[in-house]
Amino acid sequence: MADEKPLVVEDKPEARKRGIWGSKAGFVLAAAGSAIGLGNIWRFPTEAANNGGAAFLVIYVACVVFIGLPVMLAELTMGRHTRRNPVGAFKKALPKSYWWLVGALGVTVGFAILSYYSVVAGWTLGYVVKSATHTFTPDADPGQVFDGFVGSWWQTLICLAVFMGLCIAVVIGGVQAGIERWSKILMPTLLVMLVLLIIRSVTLPGSSVGLSFYLEPDFSKLNMKVLVAALGQAFFSMSLGMGAMITYGSYLSKRDNLVTSATWVGMADMSIAFLAGLMVLPALAMAGITPGLEEGGAGLIFAVLPTIFSELPWQPMGGIVFGTAFFLMLMLAALTSAISLLEVVTAWLVDERKWPRKKAVAVVGGVTFLLAVPSALGCGAVGWLSHVCTLQDQQLGFLDLMDKIFGKLALTFGSLLICLVVGWFWGMGKARDEVLSGNPRFNKLARAWSFLLRYLCPVAIAIILVFLIIDPSAIR
Length: 476
Known about the structure:
Layout: H1 13-18, H2 24-35, H3 38-50, H4 54-82, H5 86-93, H6 100-132, H7 142-150, H8 153-171, H9 175-202, H10 207-215, H11 224-236, H12 244-249, H13 258-286, H14 297-309, H15 317-352, H16 357-377, H17 383-386, E1 389-391, E2 394-396, H18 398-436, H19 443-470
Helix pairs in contact: 2-9, 2-13, 2-15, 3-11, 3-13, 3-14, 4-5, 4-11, 4-13, 4-18, 4-19, 5-6, 6-8, 6-15, 6-16, 6-18, 7-14, 8-15, 8-16, 9-13, 9-15, 10-13, 14-15, 15-16, 18-19
């Protein structure tokens, strides 16, 4: 990774007041933390295993390079150029227009996603305690344990409150003293824990079957739906369309190389997703489980894997140590993503409403907790919140509905608008000049970036949007 050479900070009172990253490595770790979340750990392994293994991986990498990175670079560019939150960025870049509504959509989406994301993150915190206290004995039914946990209003709300408290404690410290400092601690810790878990997973009896299943390409499974799945995985895992990268970009120095910064973040996101597959699938193979589409997401993490932990060698300590470390790693991944979402709304209040940071963080954190309560209670504690509506014969709880609306549809639509605004209305010339201020050699890539952002990216994102509208199950 780039060295710890401090970024050149412009001698502007406004920049110093808002905050600025202290080093390029600090920004990369923070931005990578935003991109790396629960989706990388539990979604990618299942998607890859069910869509051709290594063949899916190749398509996924191509989607990150040709779709994800151009959009990320556009968001970072607008953020740094304007030094504003998503709303203020569009107001400053395109004054006297209604394009600021695109930024408002990003802030709203980030706020909404944070509410239900924190609920699931709270589950990981609760499962750290359950694993450490040896709840998952060989005789225990993990499915019943999970149903009992999410059906207990007081347990889920306590875990939610503790997790939101951790987010507030990090963000309230500001850019350097809070987000950057803790990202430098949390991200290396997450990586070390992931590597240790991989070493244990691939050395389990029968793990070679899982490795073969994951790494040997099966091109017979490739079709349009697999392509959309890879595109969706690449897109949703990079924190695009929710204002996070615009906000983080606003804290960058004018002399920072945006291209290499975005590339490092994208590589980190891809690497963690790939490593998660090396950790999860061999462990499943050890238990004789072949991943199926119905075993993705929460079912895989909270119901299937605890069974495996209880069957590991050296019981009970083997299961306790492995399970506790796994859910602690999940919690850290969730935390690094959640603090970026909290920062989006905080930056809006600080920039546009001139609130002090401490007040903004406290208010946003408190309101987020209140908004998260229906999602927490809608997973079993309160019946009518567990079945809010029915979509294509599938009953959706409040949390599922929030994810469909904000985590899928609104997020995708917002990213499509960002491509159109930066590529066509703000102008690629201004965007190119902003990138050139930190990378004089960018002229060689500017034409390719322009083509991707103006044509390929909007078309690809529009395809995802159409699939989500026509067939919501196409991208889970």
